């Protein structure tokens, strides 16, 4: 179970969009539409932002969207706001009740 | 409201074991899976394992198999994570997180328990 690959960092100015990729294999991301995304601010618990690739839990702004193609999933944050500055992690189901997180991406709002 | 309350910080010596609790309230624990996740200092989130209430089973990440034990006490709505043969690299914040029944949507998280392994 190797971690899914994410870029270490991404950035954008307020109002711009940023897209984060999450690359796995045909045994995890490529095999299931069970990719979720988490926002993690320092010293706080992670927060679920998307599940099943592109579904938003209640309360998550529609500025957050997701997609998947083959072994790569993506999170797009549109209309960047200062409070979006955080670490973001993808997670994928990998079969047999097992899961794997991505390496994490630090998003900076310039 | 739905919440997960974790036990307090622990300091352990290498080779010892640690047991972290996660008490659920506001929902029926018997209907939900529970994940355990950790974050070492300066590192990313790491999925550790899951409790499956349907088959009363657990699944651990490959690297932790043999050292990780997860249990559930339905009488107190409390899940437990025990990690044995601790090493300094097990120093981390440990989280429990409820699976919202959509395969990996960890929708409710505990605040985290800091475990420090040091001689």
Topology:
The complex is a heterodimer of chains A (110) and B (119).
Chain A: E1 9-12, E2 18-23, E3 35-40, E4 47-50, E5 64-69, E6 72-77, E7 86-93, E8 99-101, E9 105-109
Chain B: E1 3-6, E2 10-12, E3 18-25, E4 34-39, E5 45-52, E6 57-60, E7 68-73, E8 78-83, E9 92-99, E10 106-109, E11 113-117
Parallel strand pairs in B: 2-11
Antiparallel strand pairs in B: 1-3, 3-8, 4-5, 4-9, 5-6, 7-8, 9-10, 9-11
Question: Could you describe the 3D structure shown?
Answer:
The complex is a heterodimer of chains A (110) and B (119). Chain A is mainly β and 110 residues long. In chain A, 0% of the residues lie in helices and 44% in strands. Chain A is built from no helices and nine strands. Chain A has strands at residues 9-12, 18-23, 35-40, 47-50, 64-69, 72-77, 86-93, 99-101, 105-109. In chain A, the strands form two sheets. In chain A, strands 1, 3, 4, 7, 8 and 9 form a six-stranded mixed beta sheet that branches. A three-stranded antiparallel beta sheet of chain A has the order 2-6-5, with no helix packed on it. Chain B is globular, with a radius of gyration of 14 Å. The termini of chain B are far apart. In chain B, 36% of the residues are buried. Classes of the chains: A mainly beta (110), B mainly beta (119). Chains A and B meet through β3, β7 and β8 of A and β5 and β10 of B.
């Amino acid at each position: 179970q190797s971690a899914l690959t994410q870029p270490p960092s991404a950035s954008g100015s307020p109002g711009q969009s940023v897209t984060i990729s999450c690359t796995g294999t045909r045994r995890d991301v490529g095999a299931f539409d069970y990719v979720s995304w988490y926002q993690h601010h320092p010293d706080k618990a992670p927060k679920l932002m998307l599940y099943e690739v592109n579904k938003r839990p209640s309360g998550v702004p529609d500025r957050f969207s997701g997609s998947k193609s083959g072994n790569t999933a993506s999170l797009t944050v549109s209309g960047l706001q200062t409070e979006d500055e955080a670490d973001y992690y993808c997670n994928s189901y990998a079969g047999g009740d097992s899961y794997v997180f991505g390496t994490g991406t630090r998003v900076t709002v310039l | 409201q739905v919440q997960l309350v974790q036990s307090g910080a622990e300091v352990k010596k290498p080779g010892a074991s640690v047991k972290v609790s996660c008490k659920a309230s506001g929902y029926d624990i018997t209907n939900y899976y529970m994940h355990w996740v950790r974050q070492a200092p300066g590192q990313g989130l790491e999925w550790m394992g899951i409790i499956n209430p349907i088959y009363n089973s657990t699944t651990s990440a490959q690297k932790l198999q043999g050292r990780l034990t997860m249990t559930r006490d339905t009488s107190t709505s409390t899940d437990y994570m025990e990690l044995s043969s601790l090493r300094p690299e097990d120093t981390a914040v440990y989280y429990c997180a409820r699976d919202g029944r959509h395969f990996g949507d960890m929708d409710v998280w505990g605040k985290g328990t800091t475990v420090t392994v040091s001689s």
